[in-house]
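Sequence in, structure out. Go.
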Amino acid sequence: MTRSGQEYLASLDDGREVWLDGERVKDVTRHAAFRNTAASMARLYDLSHDSEHSEALTSGGVHRAFAVPRSYEDLVARRTAYKVWAESSFGFLGRTPDCMAGGAAGFAALPGLFTTDSFDGAANALAYHARLAEGDLYAAFTITNPRSGEGEDDLVVRAVAEKDGGIVVRGAKMIGTGAVFADEVLVGTIEPLAPGDVEHALSFSVPVGAPGLKLVSRTSYEAQARSVLDNPLSSRFDENDALLVCEDVFVPWERVLTYRDVESTAAMWWGTPAYLNFVHQAATRFWTKLEFLTGLAILLTRSNNTYQLPAVTQSVGRLLAMVAQAKAFVLAAEASFEQVDGGRGGVMPGQEISFAQRIMAGELYPRAVQEIKLLAGGGVIQLPASAQDLLHPQLGPVVEKYLRAPGVTAEGRIKLLKLVWDALGSEFAGRHEQYERFYHGAPYVCLTMQTSAGGADNCEQLAQACLDGYGPGAGQ
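Output:
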């Protein structure tokens, strides 16, 4: 059954070891660096648990992201649920609980890929999916290896001991987006491993509060926020990113998904629908985020009384075209769905379109941001330092007089401009631009993989058909 927001927040009091600025955080639900974002995550749970959106968000008492889709209609229903949650944070919370929920559903669709000669993780993969769904748990993931030099492979997570009940793991993983707010963290490897690198070929899931597990947080933009009015996005939607460090963490065998097998450790992402489910959630969120940014551009130009200028109208039209493009990728991926294991594992979004979405999003987001920055001009720079200026008995009237616009109060204009700056120009905004550029991996990886995603043969055949259709004796 779904949890309430309060039940979710209570679950975070588990002794987890989160570090920020050289200090251990005692309670992420109360700390100034995390509490507002934790509350935003809790609101997602409340939307599912008891709201006018509950029917769209859940089916059979669980979030729709956990369901293994069996038809095109199921994909659409899942996307509808993704959209509701994405709109709650205007697209700025990326790795919300529905992200890994879709990944776990991907594992459950094709559990046979977890069975190898050395280890059978099929039952564990199904149990992982069931545990998350039935407990309505928030699972994060860390699937990128830290960069290590020659002779430094001990930096990457690996098993250092086997026991009757499980394994002991040591090492680090990156990048734990949202991990400080999660119930569990899945540790694995999505990047290619050398054929014989069985030492690092493992994946498992552990509670974030597991003894020996540390999360080292990056700078908190929420902690730096002056107020919700001054930093309306970063004060509430900073999902954080953390380095995961395992210092002899014990992992029971039943929580191990792959072990000492390079092929299955990769296939859990690329051979099941898990990764395509990730893209489905991310593409829906990206579409929502572009809708929000375009809405900001419209509000901004209306406030500046420039909306009707031909050049501005064209710029807004360009942004609306980007929104339509982002939407089209989501709809096309659903419409081009593919069967999993001949239909026995349900269906998944089309790979060719899903892979192309990764390239489109990374290239489109910086263009959208640049377009709106040009529309914003210098107004987002010359703003009062904080909301306190508006409330000051002497300064308030001055601010009201000189910062208002025709038909817009100074408070309304300042709110809008501060929102625009937090979305486009703040350090929080800079993280989001970099985040969207590399959300699905480095461009050279996505571009290379696109060539094997389908479509190349048809393109080549069409061009060859043209060449074969004429020769030296063709009529003039």
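Check: The domain at 5-270 is CATH 2.40.110.10 (Butyryl-CoA Dehydrogenase, subunit A; domain 2). The chain has 17 helices and 14 strands.
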